[in-house]
Amino acid sequence: METPSDHAYPDHWEADVVLRDGGTARIRPITTADAERLVSFYEQVSDESKYYRFFAPYPRLSDRDVHRFTHHDYVDRVGLAVTVGGEFIATVRYDRIDERGLPATAPADEAEVAFLVQDAHQGRGVASALLEHIAAVARERGIRRFAAEVLPANNKMIKVFRDAGYTQKRSFEDGSVRLTLDLEPTAESLAVQRGREQRAEARSVQRLLTPGSVAVVGTGRAPGGVGRTVLRNLLGAGFTGRAYAVNHAFAEDLRELDGVPAFRSVAAIGDPVDLAVLAVPAERVPEAVADCGRHGVRGLVVLSAGYAESGAEGLERQRELVRHARSYGMRIIGPNAFGIINTAGAVRLNASLAPEPPQRGRIGLFTQSGAIGIALLSGLHRRGAGLSSFISAGNRADVSGNDILQYWYEDPDTDVALLYLESIGNPRKFTRLARRTAALKPVVVVKGARHSGSAPPGHAVPVTRIPDATVSALLRQAGVIRVDTVTELVDAGLLLASQPLPAGPRVAILGNSESLGLLTYDACLTEGLRPSPPRDLTTAATPEDFRAALTTALSDPAFDAVVVTAIPHVGETGTADPANGGAVGTALREAAASAPGKPVAVVHVEIGGLAEALAAVEGSARGPAADAPTPAGPPAPTPAAAAPAGPSAPAPTASGRIPAYPAAERAVRALAEAVRYAQWRRQSAEPGKVPESLDDTIDQSAAALLIERLLGETPDRHGVSLDAAGTRELLGLYGIPVRPTLPAPGPDDAVAAANTLGYPVALKTTAPHLRHRSDLGGVRLDLADEAQLRLAHRELTETLGGPAELRPVVQAMAPRGVDTVVRAAIDAAAGAVLSFGLAGAPSELLGDLAHRLVPATDRDVAEQIRSIRSAPLLFGWRGSTPVDTPALEELLLRVSRLVDDHPEIVSVTLEPVVVATRGLTVLGANVRLAPPPARDDLGPRRLPSY
Length: 946
What we know:
Blueprint: E1 15-18, E2 24-29, H1 35-43, H2 47-54, H3 63-70, E3 77-84, E4 87-97, E5 110-117, H4 126-140, E6 145-150, H5 155-162, E7 167-173, E8 176-182, H6 187-209, E9 213-217, H7 226-236, E10 242-246, E11 256-257, E12 260-263, E13 275-278, H8 285-295, E14 299-302, H9 312-327, E15 331-333, E16 339-342, E17 349-352, E18 360-367, H10 370-382, E19 387-392, H11 401-410, E20 416-421, H12 427-438, E21 443-447, H13 468-477, E22 481-483, H14 486-498, E23 506-511, H15 514-526, E24 530-531, E25 535-536, H16 543-555, E26 561-566, H17 580-594, E27 600-604, H18 610-614, H19 639-642, E28 660-661, H20 664-684, H21 700-712, E29 720-721, H22 724-732, E30 741-743, H23 747-757, E31 761-765, E32 779-783, H24 786-800, H25 803-806, E33 808-812, E34 818-827, E35 831-838, H26 841-844, E36 849-853, H27 858-867, H28 885-901, E37 905-915, E38 920-922, E39 925-929
Parallel strand pairs: 5-6, 9-10, 9-13, 10-12, 13-14, 14-15, 18-19, 18-20, 20-21, 21-22, 23-24, 23-25, 23-26, 26-27, 27-28
Antiparallel strand pairs: 1-2, 2-3, 3-4, 4-5, 6-8, 7-8, 11-12, 16-17, 16-19, 29-39, 30-33, 31-32, 31-33, 34-35, 34-37, 35-36, 37-38, 37-39
Helix pairs in contact: 6-11, 8-9, 10-14, 11-12, 14-20, 15-20, 16-17, 23-24, 27-28
């Protein structure tokens, strides 16, 4: 008889997942306590599904079956269940087998696997999610292949295996299909997994934003209060679905409130409820969640405060809220949320505290702060911009910016994504999603809490140790437009939503103020644009003059964009003409409409009616998809060209809107961001690659064996820093030679080392406080003979300390060049980051470093080298000879490949790397190894649990 194993319950296998229809479920190991759940589950499975599982009529489970299916050792016999509301809806089990198909133990690496999904939940992607998780469990336990026997008529199960993306074999034996799956992840299986993740998470957000019915739980009996305000806003926006007011304190005979049905509980509502807005005190939320869950509500917006933002007790309350809601298959916006808005005509949802919903538009807005959300809604409304959707997530305990990006990626109503973030729970995933979305539509981010070193109160997320400058560089690598303030967020959003992307940096400036034109010219130069001298129309310019000048500039192939400057027109009486602003705005819109392929921005100073006239035209925005060809050059890539795997973007239609700015610097900064983003879009259409030639000089398998041995030799579970010999050996396997050093504790040792290495040599200390400090005398170069070496050794030890402290070494001189530094480090949240800069003061004092995510491509490293401020020193500054940057690019690619191939390498530092006119020399290197951190982006799909 089988007995429970001594293996501990593997709680790390537990996971919440989003299913194909957007609902959530929990996957967990089956235990001995699950006997009744298993029997109940099996009773609800159809006879046909039972037949497909057991290949024969099998109406009920015997006691022996129940015992066998609930008793596992979590190694050779494993069972997982999918639960909703605590009840099983699906199970999967594997049994390790030998080559004859008989029960076995390790080292046998094959297992037989079988699934059973309740009929009511088939078609929701349950089996696909289960396959991902049981495969990950099997790999953890040393199983490399799954074998499955499937009846030919069981097309659904065959499709689950076929579509998983694993390498597989198929045969037909004894009336059944035998499938064998290699469980090693492949590029195809990872792509399948991420595609399913995107569709499921997007659907879960869509369910929240497009409900057919909404219940406001906690609606006050008297006017005022949060619940009553949300109900009023919901009705005021013209919500097209059914609305309900819910409050347990309602009188039993109350049937209606504010014209909608009133109930004492959600359970009392006779019809389905898609979305519930909870506006009750935190202590009442669990009761409300259970009420909603039992009624089948699909999602929650929790406005209630008193959670993680209030301290440790609130954090635990927040975690329990998420667990409770997910157990019923519900996702949560909040807690401490401001609400959600969807302006689509078919929905017209304002389930928020915003008293006036924004007009319909093409901008999506996500914010983690209610106060910032209010400010952004007000600013966009004041400047005539409309939104497609708005989500204020509060503590973002469940639905986060990652989920919203998944939704916006395929949302045809959203052309521009604006996000205010105070924390990024999964930076690695965020950059991946942002890169994919940015290939279709602009993603603009402003991040608060940049320098606090911790997440804001209420945001229970892992804290990344990466400096903010590095985060900014990584976001830009992913195509994200990173701005510093919410004002810049609105400025950039307005231009990107209403104007086509510029084909280049050439800017025409025209207007009726010479001074304002010069300010605009200076701002363009500051932002790296190429402005033409401003064209002064004089203060006497009429609306017709503006129209003609803009038409001429837009038709000129020498320009990629136009900035119009305007000050009030003063007539002969000495007073400003109040009607002139509207006339100028109309003239500019008509001129822009005649040449819609180039962006236009207007800078104005106190001209009444101008901004309103520029934003007066209704309709769809001339969004970023409107990359029409211009005589100046090829267009920016269309969304289809930039991301062929993604959904098609909507056909662009000119709106006639022109963004207006009260300062030249703001208009030009927004335009510059559009120019840089358009350049990124063009480049991302042809992504970089890692040259195959590197493979000839890389021995990945030998490096893996070396790393395994070096880690095995250290008892420290936190890892080990390699000595010089180990570092040279490991780097050498990746074609990175390190110039050797020999110890020189005494002058005779130094001379012997120099004789071995050959003159000229360098004498330097390796003490941590003096490493690479030539300014303190810790490095003596170009020692040509024994006499110079002995003198340098004596001066070094007399000035800086004894040999035991200094630990001096001798090294052969390298060819003269530019000293640089190359680093790679692993951040648990963001992943591996490759850094480059010039050694010494530029990188250490000024922070002049460039960063890229690993794996880096040839294009990434080429841009990385050229993006530091001190890059001219590499390219012949002031008549010096340019250095060998191709060799430097190759070195960066090799370091990137090294840390990407071996997650046990947690840090690499090459310093200095002397780059000469031909070739380079690595003079110093440090490598640290540690057990590899978990890669949540490579494992099976799961919702975060903070």
